[in-house]
Design a protein that fits this description.
41% helix; alpha/beta; 10 helices; two-stranded parallel sheet; seven-stranded parallel beta sheet; single chain
């Protein structure tokens, strides 16, 4: 297939490119981090620039567009709602419209934060009710796709993490690419961490998420699927397990409540996802946390030994 990855320089975009470039013809857009592709296949394009992104898609003529690009800093979304809407809704709509116009499939990466978080283990049939603007903007993006594009798949996921080599571990601003890398960087320097013990989710290894998204493309799945890790766990226990798996000092990790952090945006307390539908449809298994952390730890050991 000819696949265009929107947001190819981000955590998930990089993993999709890494795993698919041998079997598919891959193109990518980026904003700050160019992915490792030939210069003729990467493009500095913002999906909020309607004319530019739609012109690019029409020129490439991909079979599938995987949209991983988002404004996903939850607290910043709360204070910069206009920007969140522009990226997560208008930018997404721009991609959906041109996919429909050329007959391409659109795969959109959404989030567990579309749910209220008072129940947990959410199925695709559960009614979304986001408690913060990030979740609302992603839900509005989902709805924009449904209206604009006939062939789409919305993949909701949760707390994406993965290992990157040190020189690829941070964004241009210096912020770690994901929660897992942030924690390992801190623990590696023996810095103490305060991690919330009352926010439950389904941590998802980006490597396996990328594999599953490619299967979704190959099987032409349509509609909404929850594509996440199989284990429901709170963030404190998640990082504790990571530390133990990787040999870091677990006493550096302090368990705290969400209220103690005074975060600008409210968080859903249990946004964990039920993954039975994707497992049954693809006849596959989503990774348990133990299996995912083994992969994460092995990658870190291999990377650090080079």
């Amino acid at each position: 297939m000819r696949i265009l990855v929107i947001g190819g320089g981000g955590q998930l975009g990089l993993k999709i490119i890494e795993q698919s470039k041998e079997n598919h013809e891959i193109y990518a857009t980026y904003l700050t981090r160019p992915p490792l592709l030939s210069s003729s296949k990467i493009f500095l394009v913002d999906k909020t620039d309607k004319n530019l992104i739609q012109s690019l898609v029409k020129t490439i003529k991909p079979d599938v567009v995987i949209d991983t690009a988002a404004f996903h800093n939850v607290d910043n979304c709360e204070t910069n709602k206009e920007q969140a809407h522009r990226v997560n809704v208008e930018g997404t709509k721009n991609v959906a419209e041109v996919c429909d116009a050329i007959g391409a499939k659109m795969v959109f990466i959404s989030t567990d934060y579309v749910f209220k978080g008072n129940v947990g283990h959410y199925k695709e049939t559960d009614v979304p009710s986001p408690v913060n603007y990030y979740g609302k903007s992603k839900l509005d993006g989902e709805n924009a796709i449904k209206k604009a594009c006939k062939n789409y798949c919305i993949a909701r996921t949760s707390v994406i993490y993965s290992w990157f080599s040190t020189h690829n571990a941070s964004t241009k601003s210096g912020k770690p690419l994901n929660f897992g890398m942030w924690a390992t960087q801190k623990l590696g320097k023996e810095e103490p961490l305060n991690i919330v013990n009352d926010q439950y989710s389904s941590p998802t290894l980006a490597d396996h998420l990328a594999q599953t998204l490619l299967k979704i493309c190959e099987e032409d799945l349509r509609g909404i699927y929850h594509v996440a890790g199989k284990t429901r766990i709170n963030r404190y226990d998640f990082i504790l397990k990571m530390a133990e798996k990787m040999g870091y000092n677990p006493t550096l990790i302090k368990s705290v409540s969400s209220s103690s952090l005074k975060q600008k945006a409210e968080r859903p307390m249990d946004s964990s996802l039920n993954v039975e539908k994707i497992e049954k449809t693809l006849k596959t298994k989503m990774l348990s946390l133990d299996d995912a952390l083994t992969i994460f730890s092995n990658q870190a050991q291999e990377g650090n030994s080079k």
